[in-house]
């Protein structure tokens, strides 16, 4: 019977232990980097939602103002104080305001989805809510 016990294995065990420690530290660093990126992304999405709400409200007011301007211009055209060019320009302003309003709403909805996703709250109820807002 022969008993073989390696007394010295060329620092292989110590090297494997050091490598395992380095791997653990590297994994911790990657985890922390991902956590910070998620926090930053969530914060940015939150601020985008807040500014999107303000943008939607401002564009909504611009649509109301453009509609009032168009109505006044059409009334002026009917009594002869405005030209057809003035009416067409007022219509163009209204259409541009409506387009900006639609774009602001769309951007707000996308930012809300991104915020829900980053927060881990994106699910079927949130998608139903967004779908209802698109109707």
From TrEMBL:
Chief location of this protein? membrane
Pfam families in the cross-refs: OEP (PF02321)
Q: Where, subcellularly, is it found?
A: Cell outer membrane
Q: Name one GO molecular function term.
A: efflux transmembrane transporter activity
The answer to whether the entry has keyword Transmembrane is yes
Keywords of this entry:
Cell outer membrane, Membrane, Transmembrane, Transmembrane beta strand, Transport
Record-linked InterPro entries: OMP_efflux (IPR003423), TolC-like (IPR051906)
This protein's GO cellular component annotations are:
cell outer membrane; efflux pump complex
Mind telling me which PANTHER family this protein's record contains? OUTER MEMBRANE PROTEIN TOLC
Report the protein name in the record: Outer membrane efflux protein
Name the species this protein comes from: mine drainage metagenome
């Amino acid at each position: 019977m022969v008993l073989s016990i390696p007394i010295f294995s060329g620092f292989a065990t110590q090297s494997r232990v050091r490598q395992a420690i380095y791997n653990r530290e590297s994994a911790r660093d990657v985890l922390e980097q991902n956590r910070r990126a998620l926090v930053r992304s969530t914060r940015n999405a939150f601020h985008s939602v807040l500014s999107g709400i303000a943008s939607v409200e401002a564009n909504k007011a611009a649509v109301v103002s453009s509609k009032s301007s168009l109505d006044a211009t059409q009334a002026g055209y009917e009594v002869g104080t405005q030209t057809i060019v003035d009416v067409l320009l007022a219509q163009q302003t209204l259409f541009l305001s409506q387009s900006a309003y639609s774009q602001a709403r769309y951007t707000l909805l996308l930012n809300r989805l991104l915020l829900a996703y980053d927060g881990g709250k994106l699910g079927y109820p949130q998608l139903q809510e967004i779908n209802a807002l698109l109707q």
